[in-house]
Amino acid sequence: MNNNGEIYDLVILGGGPAGLSAGLYAMRAVLSTILVERATPGGQVAITKDVENYPGLDEITGLDLSDKLLQHAQSYGLEVIQDEAVSIDPGPDLHSVILGSGKILKAHAVIIATGGAPRKLGVPGESEFIGRGVSYCAKCDGFFFQDRVVTVVGGGDTAIEEALYLSKLASKVYLVHRRSGFRASKILQKRIHESSVELVLNSAVTQIYANEDGVHSIVVNELLTGEQRTIETEGVFIFVGLMPNNRIVPAGIILDSAGYAVTDEKCATRIPGIYIAGDLKTKFAKQIVVAAAEGCTAALAAADYIDQKKNIMGIFDTRSRVIKPQSVSPEDLRTGPQASITGDPTH
Ligand code: NAP
Fold first, then answer.
1. pTM of the entire structure?
2. Comparing C-alpha atoms, which of 115, 17, 113 is closest to residue 57?
3. Which atom of ligand 1 is nearest the CA belonging to 188?
């Protein structure tokens, strides 16, 4: 319930591009909406140095793009609160979102857009030395490594982009990748080959060492020969992909083998009124523009669902939203598009 004891039409969880785009479209659909973000809005984009492939924007910093997405949604009156969603209790009528503060938000629909968190390498020294040389954010921590030797781990877009960024600050950058081929886009591969970054390919970091001053070296295993090599480095920036933030996804929603949520083309799950958008959703291209598009889709689908639900229940909105009579039965809502998703719930 909101501060006036009202029930929300829509609760959005996560303030990245998917959540903020959902917020924009929800407000334009005149849904009473609240967005819950545990940190600063922007998600992974906010910690990205530069974004070069958001259509219509030649180049923009991740922080500026996050700010623009937030301001745009808030210009339509989106309510944004800082809190953490700890669980979702789906109800036959309203869904309840339980927040870390103890607050409970009740809503007709929920969009889960909680994205992902950096995957860990899982090697000795990694967890122990976070903040003392081990980092998952070049933009946040790169400054501390000016004129120092740093190592980036990974071969995807993030690793290459951040290695290129660090090469402008650090005295030397190593890029350690477990294969000889990169997953990153061709344009980034070209740039890394033309840069000063030293590539350490077919290799895996097996140990990170530090002393009281922080990280000083890593051990790298050459995977084809089994040879071990020590690289002296003061920073280890790890970009080996994302793990989906699926902890609050209610039981009954299908997750794929990697933990990403499966939805239909409307971002709808098997639970009526619960939608998933952004990096938490399984997809081919994890791009900002795709996350934003999914936020739009989920919000429009939620608006349609809420309209139908209120129409059936005879609830007429006190706001400006016009609810057109439609011939749908409660059975339609219960077994609506979500019911077309097949497969076994994996949790
Ligand atoms: P990613 O594309 O999943 O790449 C992860 C990289 O880490 C891969 O090179 C992978 O190696 C490696 N890796 C995974 N687990 C590892 C382990 N345990 N040890 C060592 N290496 C490991 O992740 P990402 O770069 O974070 O990108 C995530 C998504 O966001 C992608 O879809 C990407 O295209 C997108 N993105 C786009 C942009 C952009 O368009 N500007 C920027 C950033 C991210 P293998 O290749 O051998 O599997």
1. 0.86
2. 17
3. 41
